From TrEMBL:
GO-annotated molecular function: magnesium ion binding; phosphatase activity
Protein name: Cof-type HAD-IIB family hydrolase
Recorded superkingdom: Bacteria
One term under GO cellular component: cytosol
Pfam families: Hydrolase_3 (PF08282)
Length: 275
């Protein structure tokens, strides 16, 4: 068969985009991804999840490019089970931020990640639900003994409380990226690191030009990725701000959104609009 997708890179978000309910991936999406790869395309997933968590959930779904984990902080090769590279937050800065939030927002849970290790500084009912879903090794820690290598931090609480935390971060002018990845999760990464920078790095690693990249997502942390890609697609169930940032809006995650993006890519390639 003609390798019509040769030289193209498609990056998909997982939760709310590729996955329909929980971690369920439809046969429609599975078949479309396999055909995309068979016809020369490169496919991978960009997620806020840590490497072990996303590998467990995607099962046998084929990927033939490094996984983008922790919102562009960590790049992971699934076949070898190896972190290729990562972008930890500057140690002194993130320690200062974590201690500020620990002292000034006593109800907010704090989860600190070093790739697949989760250092739990403080818990609450929201973080209890989150850690039940995590496959990371969980290690208690204290403000005096924080890890030295930190790829991301999650503040976990009700949204109203997290809005106050975010306002504090803005007022302090901390050189850090922060983004809501769920209504009760506010995540911090190194300045300049997000899903958009992750897509750019993966494309460069694979030798693929920006004009031959596509991405699909549903939430705030996907917006940089959709803007970075030549074709940014939002699922129908995406937040309004995400749909606004996208070039196209496809069907919902429950209806096989990734398959529809691949169909749109094929249409554009055959029309000479892409590739």
């Amino acid at each position: 068969m003609e390798p019509i997708f040769r030289g193209l890179l498609l990056v998909s978000d997982f939760d709310g985009t590729l996955a329909a309910h929980g971690s369920y991936i439809s046969e429609k999406n599975d078949a479309a991804i396999r055909r995309f790869i068979e016809l020369g395309g490169r496919f991978t997933i960009s997620t806020g999840r840590a490497p072990g968590s996303i590998c467990e959930r995607i099962g046998q779904i084929p990927v033939n490019a490094p996984l983008l984990c922790s919102n562009g902080s960590t790049f992971f090769e699934r076949d070898r089970g190896k972190v290729l590279w990562c972008h930890p937050i500057e140690t002194g800065l993130i320690h200062r931020i974590v201690r500020e939030v620990y002292e000034q927002f006593p109800g907010t849970a704090i989860e600190i990640f070093e790739n697949d290790t989760l250092y739990l500084l403080r818990r609450n009912s929201y973080s209890d639900r989150h850690t039940e879903m995590e496959t990371a090794v969980i290690v208690p820690c204290t403000p005096e003994r924080l890890p030295q290598v930190i790829t991301k931090v999650i503040f976990v609480d009700e949204n109203a409380a997290l809005q106050k935390v975010r306002a504090h971060l803005v007022r302090q002018g901390h050189e850090i990226e922060h983004v809501f990845t769920y209504v009760s999760y506010l995540e911090l990464m190194k300045r300049g690191v997000d899903k958009g920078s992750g897509l750019r790095e993966i494309a460069e690693y694979l030798g693929i030009e920006r004009e031959k990249t596509a991405a699909v997502g549903d939430y705030y942390n996907d917006i940089p990725m959709l803007r970075q890609a030549a074709l940014g697609a939002a699922v129908a169930n995406a937040l309004p701000e995400v749909r606004e940032a996208a070039d196209v809006v496809v069907c919902s995650n429950a209806e096989g959104a990734v398959a529809e993006v691949i169909a749109e890519l094929e249409r554009r390639v055959r029309s000479g609009l892409l590739g």
